[in-house]
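Notebook p. 47: complex prediction with nicotinamide-adenine-dinucleotide.
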Amino acid sequence: MTQKEFAGRTALVTGGSRGIGRAICVRLARAGAWVAVNYAANPDAAAETLELITAEGGSGGLFQADVSSFEATGAMYDAIEAERGTVDLLVTNAGIASFDDNADMNADVWRQILSVNLDGTFHSVWRAKERMLAQEYGRIVCISSINGIAPSRIRRDRLIAYGTSKSAVISFARSCAMALGPAIRVNCVAPGLIDTDMTKDMSEEMRERIIASTPAGRTGKPEDVAELTYFLLSDAADFVTGQTYVTSGGLVTLP
Ligand code: NAD
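Predicted complex, structure tokens below:
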């Protein structure tokens, strides 16, 4: 039998209890990684992710932490390292969004979104990097968004804080790729509209407008993001670092 790509590797996926994070956990488990499923507040949902991992013939563990806290993120790493040693593969996926009108945005909403999406990414990468550097191996994918590449023209009255946080994630990942290579590769995935709990309350009219502007003619699935994330973590992407890859069915195209 051929060896699985990530056999013997430990992966951490933040926000792994549902949606895109869950699909990534399952994909990495299928590739042989032992998967640390981070969750913030819903152990039952995280346990369902672990069941899906087990159904793939994989294994992993559940690790609670609010990644907007550096201390809590550090304690989570302590627990993973005590059980498994170094985190080899990191996916910073935990994120929140506000789809309220920008007129309703205030300093509290701004801080909340930046603290999870940007600070949370920083906390996870910063805690991971020393041990990755010491072992001269680390692979990181940060989940950004097409809103981090360009502000939405379809929903241009919304998403200022979210778009800002996701642009900053791209910039952070690029800087980390420069600073941490060659031992560590760091890339971003920027999804378009993906059907998850985050986007389920979108109006049908808005969804149809987005699909009408999407060459692929559909919204995305969490698995679309998981496949790209898997690729960027794999050895097939060994010469790829500091990049942002869009998975949006063509809704957004990079020059
Ligand atoms: P989701 O709301 O279903 O999942 C987000 C996950 O992050 C949840 O498991 C949640 O518990 C976790 N999380 C939130 N705050 C956290 C915290 N402080 N600490 C730890 N975990 C926390 O949303 P999703 O659509 O699966 O989104 C996953 C990622 O993909 C997010 O970063 C999101 O911004 C990004 N994204 C989503 C879409 C989309 O259309 N769904 C598009 C572009 C980017």
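Notes: The longest helix spans residues 107-135. The longest strand covers residues 184-191.
Next step: compare against the earlier run before touching the bench.
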